[in-house]
Amino acid sequence: MAQQTDIRAGGAFLRPTAHDTSVLDNAVWAALDGPHAHLAERVGRAARYPADVYAFAALADPGDPAAWADLHTLVGPATTVRIKPVETVPEGWDIVGGGVGVQLVDTALRAEHAPEAIRLGPDDVPEILDLVARTHPGPFLKRTIALGTYLGIRDQGRLIALAGERIRPPGWTEISAVCTDPAYRGRGLATRLVRAVAAGIRERGDIPFLHAAADNANAIRLYESIGFTLRRRSPILLVRSPGTSHRGAVL
Asked: Among 11-15, 109-113, 195-199, which stretch is predicted with the lowest mean pLDDT?
C-alpha cells in the first residue's frame, strides 16, 4: 500500500490520500513518462504530445541542462513550444509568452454518473471543436479526444456541454475541456459532467484534478464549491529553441 500523503495548499490541511502528490508538480512529464507513454514523442529526458493532441512539452527535470538539450533535439531549431512548470530557460532559449495557471485536486467532490451524458468519439470532434471555439475552455485539438473519456450533453441532437479527461500522471487524471453553450448556462450542466467524468476516474482507482488560468476567478470558485482545493500555482511558458529555421512552428 502506498504511503499516505497530506496535501497542503496555502497552509490549509486537506484530506490525506494514498496517491503520491509529488507527480503533480511535473504532471505533463509524469503522464508522458507513464500512462500516456504510448502517445509521447520523446528524446531522452524531454517529451511532448503530438501537436494535434495536446500542444505541450515537458522535461524530466527543468533544472537539468541535458534535458533542455534533449528538448532542442526533439523540437528542432527556432521552434516555439509550450512547457510547464518552468520559470527560467537556459541561455539561447527565448521566452516569447506565457501565463500562470492553478492546479486543483479533488478533496471533497461528489462523483456520480449523469444518465443524460453520452460518451463522445472521433465522429463528434467537429461539434466539439465548434463548442470549444465558442466557449474557450482551454486547448482542444483534432486528436485531443485520444487522451481519455469525453462526455457530452445534447439538446435536440445539438452538443451543448462537454467535459473530459486530459493528462494522466500515475494515480491521477486531469478533468479538462469543461464548457457549456452560453445559451444553456446556469443549469448545472458543467457540474454534472465534471461529477460524471470524476466517477469514471475514481472507478479505475485514480483521483481527479484539474487546471485553470490563475485569473479565471469564476472557474476556480466553481471548482472549489464542488469539492476541489487549490494545490499550487505554476507558470506556463511559451519558449523558442535556439537556432534558425524556416519553420518557426508552434508545437
From this structure: 11-15
Q: Tell me the C-alpha to C-alpha distance, in Å, between residue 88 and each of 52, 62, 94, 129.
A: 26, 9, 10, 33
> CA of 189: how far to CAs of 163, 183, 222, in Å?
10, 12, 12
CB 81 within 8 A of CB 251: yes
Residue type present at position 141: L
CA distance 220 to 222: 5
C-beta atoms surrounding 27 within 10 Å: 23
The single residue listed with the C-alpha cell 512547457 is 83
Question: CA 208 to CA 175: how far, in whole Å?
Answer: 7
Q: With contact defined as beta carbons under 8 Å apart, do 163 and 138 qualify? A: no
180-196: pLDDT as tens digits: 999 999 999 999 999 99
All cell numbers assigned to 183: 445559451
pTM of the model: 0.88
Q: Which three cell numbers stand for residue 84?
A: 510547464
Residue 173 to residue 163: CA distance in whole angstroms: 13
Residue 16 binned pLDDT confidence (cut-offs 50, 70, 90): very low
Region 85-95: mean pLDDT is 94
